[in-house]
Amino acid sequence: MGRYHHGERDEQWQARAKQSIDRMWVAQKTIHMLCGSEVNDAARLLAYDVQNVIRNGPAPGELRDEMVWAYIRPNRRAFLDLVREHLQ
What does the H/E/C string look like for the chain? Predict the structure, then answer.
């Protein structure tokens, strides 16, 4: 299973990526326990986006950082908007 980070696929980066993905899913499960289904669904979609971009990297020819943000931005925005509504 290859991970991508600026062209690197070393074991150290893979371990950091796995730790980050694991922490993200623990946080998502906390949201699942504390929030309603609408917020949980938005958090889950964002978590899948982040996991996919960490595992698969950007599309060939894309600028890495810009592509990552473009990929996660819609679900990130939806999640943040729902959380704001939930907290008001």
Answer: CCCCECCECCHHHHHHHHHHHHHHHHHHHHHHHHCCHHHHHHHHHHHHHHHHHHHHCCCCCCCHHHHHHHHHHHHHHHHHHHHHHHHC
What are the pLDDT digits (tens) for 20-59? 999 999 999 999 999 889 999 999 999 999 898 888 876 6
Whole-prediction pTM: 0.73
CA quadruple 29, 33, 35, 38: dihedral, nearest 10: 60
Contact 50, 72 (CB under 8 A): yes
